[in-house]
Design a protein that fits this description.
Layout: E1 13-15, H1 21-26, E2 31-34, E3 37-40, E4 43-44, E5 50-52, E6 59-62, E7 85-88, E8 91-101, E9 106-111, E10 114-124, E11 129-134, E12 137-142, E13 145-147, E14 152-157, E15 164-167, E16 170-172, E17 176-181, E18 186-189, E19 192-194, E20 198-203, E21 216-221, E22 224-226, E23 251-256, E24 259-264, E25 267-269, E26 283-286, E27 297-302, E28 305-307, E29 314-316, E30 321-324, E31 327-328, E32 333-334
Parallel strand pairs: 1-2, 2-5, 3-6, 4-7, 5-8, 6-8, 7-9, 8-10, 9-11, 10-12, 10-13, 11-14, 12-15, 13-16, 14-17, 15-18, 16-19, 17-20, 18-21, 19-22, 20-23, 21-24, 22-25, 23-26, 24-27, 25-28, 26-29, 27-30, 28-31, 29-32
Protein name: Right-handed parallel beta-helix repeat-containing protein
Organism: Pseudonocardia nematodicida
Pfam families: Beta_helix
């Protein structure tokens, strides 16, 4: 998953460690290139912005001066948190080759954006969310890593109507590795999710004051969802892992209230709960109708390896899902 460091571009404004990235964008730059080193402070991206580091682990964005932004408050976060990179009501932004570490909100927060392109971005130890993309379209998240956030490492919330792709990424140490929250036309491919409470969570649920939801026409393919055993949602204290959600642990892939989803070629193995979980298997298909969501329907589960999980490998509504050519262990369960 390592991406080679980009060479310096002739059309770029080059910033040395400690320099102000925001000042360069405010002065009209559209491509800002960062040399290896540390850069303090958050950044707000204008339309057409390219923020290019020397590579994740070599170039690092850390907390410092907070850049002014009118982006709405971050979901499930306290007031006055800071974010590493913000994009709001803009289009065609890209971030590449950068570690974003230690922010009290999200590493990267995009809201109402058309065109977000992320490559070789590492979100590490950001308090609430890692990469959080909301009410946005044309999303491409590739070769990224996200770890150590209270909720999701990579989250798509209320993103409808345009193709979204999360590919060749790795998540660990979050409540949810990848969270597809009321987002449609999303493909999760070749993702390695390990050491979370849930590797991939797909959820249709309505919330007061939020946009209409739904998770439809999605795919989860060729992923490794293994060893997810953290406990999330156990304690309702706001600073605990997954505090706003129900108790979860030991889940490889959960699809709740989803429709027209294809699950193919995945390895879902070695997921064991580290605490109480409302879901009792590594692969779960269930309804969210009681929470204002929907019953699951038209789900295809084909050619997956699902074994060595506890307390069960699968818990699937047989009326909602078609299972074909899977390798499923002896702890198979259906509902």
């Amino acid at each position: 998953m390592t991406t080679p460091a980009p060479t310096e571009r002739v059309d770029a404004t080059v910033i040395d460690p400690g320099g102000s990235i925001q000042a360069a964008f405010d002065a009209g730059a559209r491509t800002v290139q960062l040399r290896a080193g540390s850069y303090p402070g958050g950044v707000v991206l204008p339309s057409g912005a390219r923020l290019v580091g020397a590579g994740a682990g070599r170039t690092e964005l850390v907390p410092g001066r907070v850049a002014a932004s009118d982006v709405p408050p971050l979901h499930d976060a306290p007031d006055a948190v800071d974010h590493g990179v913000v994009a709001h009501r803009v289009s065609d932004v890209a971030v590449e080759g950068l570690t974003i570490r230690g922010f009290s909100g999200a590493a990267l927060y995009a809201h109402t954006v058309r065109g977000v392109h992320l490559r070789d971005v590492e979100a590490a130890d950001n308090t609430v969310w890692g990469i959080y993309l909301r009410e946005s379209t044309d999303l491409d998240v590739r070769d990224c890593r996200a770890s150590g956030s209270r909720y999701a490492g990579i989250a798509l919330a209320f993103c409808h109507g345009s193709d979204c792709e999360v590919a060749d990424c790795e998540t660990s140490g979050n409540a949810y590795g990848v969270f597809v929250d009321n987002s449609s036309r999303t493909r999760v491919r070749r993702v390695r999710a390990h050491g979370n409470a849930a590797g991939v969570l797909m959820l249709h649920q309505t919330y007061p004051g939020e946009p209409e939801g739904g998770v439809t026409d999605c795919a989860v393919a060729d992923c490794e969802l293994t060893g997810n055993g953290l406990s999330a949602g156990i304690d309702d204290e706001p600073e605990t892992l997954g505090a706003a959600g129900p108790p979860m642990s030991g889940i490889g892939l959960a699809m709740i209230g989803v429709q027209r989803v294809t699950v193919t070629g995945n390895r879902i193995t070695g997921n064991h709960p580290g605490g109480f979980s409302v879901m009792g298997a590594a692969l779960v298909v269930g309804s969210s109708a009681d929470w204002g969501g929907s019953d699951p329907a038209d789900i295809s589960v084909e050619r997956n390896i699902i074994r060595d999980n506890s307390p069960a490998d699968i818990d699937v509504d047989p009326d909602a899902a078609h299972l074909c050519d899977n390798t499923i262990g002896t702890s198979e369960g259906t509902s």
